[in-house]
Amino acid sequence: MLGAAGVVANGQSGAEIPRRSLGRTGLEVSALGIGGYHLGSANSDAEATQIVNEALDAGVNFFDNAWEYHQGLSEERLGRALKGKRDRAVVMTRCVHMGATRISPCASLKNR
After folding, report:
1. Per-residue pLDDT reduced to its tens digit, 42-77
2. Is 37 in the active site?
3. Is the pTM of this model over 0.85?
4. In this structure, are residues 93 and 62 in contact, taking their beta carbons and an 8 Å threshold?
5. Spacing of C-alpha 108 from chain mean position
6. Separation CA 5–CA 76 (nearest Å)
7. Residue range(s) defining the domain that contains residue 53
8. Quick one: which of 26, 40, 56, 79 is 20 to 30 A from 5 by CA?
9. Does any domain span residue 1?
C-alpha cells in the first residue's frame, strides 16, 4: 500500500532532494531512496528507526524492501519505524524467493 508522501522536504543543509513521478500513480518520490536490507542488519530496532527518521527528515520518502531481507526483520523494522509517519513515505516491497524453506508471503500470492 502506498502512502501519500508527495511533499517536498529540505534536509539540514537546506538542499532539496529532487523528486520524480512514480509512473502514473500521481505520487512523487525522492530521487534517492533507502534500501531496507540494512534496516535488518542494524544493531537494534532503535538504530533502524533512527535511519528511517533521519532519511525522512532529510527529504527521502522512498523506501525499498523485501521479505527475504533478514527473514522479514527489515520489513518489520520499517513498519515499526514508520508508525505514525506512514503518510510521509512511499514503500516498495518485492516478492523474491531466494530458496527459503518456509512458506513465504510470495508463495501465498501465487496461490490466489
Report:
1. 999 999 999 999 999 999 999 999 888 888 899 999
2. no
3. no
4. no
5. 21
6. 20
7. 19-110
8. 40
9. no
